[in-house]
Amino acid sequence: MKHCIVNFSDYKFELGQKRLKKSLIEYGYQGDVLLFNEFSQVGSKQHLEVPYQFKVYAIEKARQMGYDVVLYCDASIYAIKDVMPVIYHIIDKGHLMEFCGFSVGQFSTDICLSEFGLTRDEAMNIGLHSAGFTGLNFQNEKASEFFDKWLKSAKEEITFCGDWNNLKKQCSDDERCLGHRHDQTTASIIAYQLEIERTNPHFMQYDFDGLETKENTIFNCRGIC
Prior knowledge:
Elements: E1 3-8, H1 14-26, E2 32-36, H2 39-42, H3 53-64, E3 69-73, E4 77-79, H4 84-93, E5 95-96, E6 99-103, H5 110-115, H6 120-123, E7 127-129, E8 133-137, H7 141-156, H8 182-193, E9 204-206, E10 219-221
Parallel strand pairs: 1-2, 1-3, 9-10
Antiparallel strand pairs: 3-8, 4-10, 5-8, 6-7
């Protein structure tokens, strides 16, 4: 199967993109690496206009280029060992989506929840997963259905818009709402409604000073210095 790892980074995050590319070379990744730096390359609007629309469009670009299996990695992510077990997991399971420890109810606008017919109470019980580390096998029917819905939402833009914080109650009057997570919130709701299996962190680990790396960790996630 034709597989690739995809990243979009504008000038602010190119150092992270270079770190990702270097790590993939170092650990002998056997597929292609697609790196985008201009919104025009993927056809999305600017990040501040429609946050993270570029991410979904970059994956769609890879699909249009004929890739069967796509792993999207944010610029904060880099490999720490051979990444092929992750690719094999996506091929076998059809997808890769790992929880990040928060809920949709904590990071969703009222408008987004309304678009999906959810209450805040219901959303508090829906896990949020790390959309910046998403794997899809487009030969898998459920994974393709998920992505088609995610792409549709990205194009419609409604659920991709909203502030990162809720300090002025601009996302919701509900005190439980901490802000909005755009592509991630949308993806998490779609996956939940399609009953797609998501897992606790396995292949990707958030990296902090003094934190011990787990045995199964293949990618670390750390801010760009």
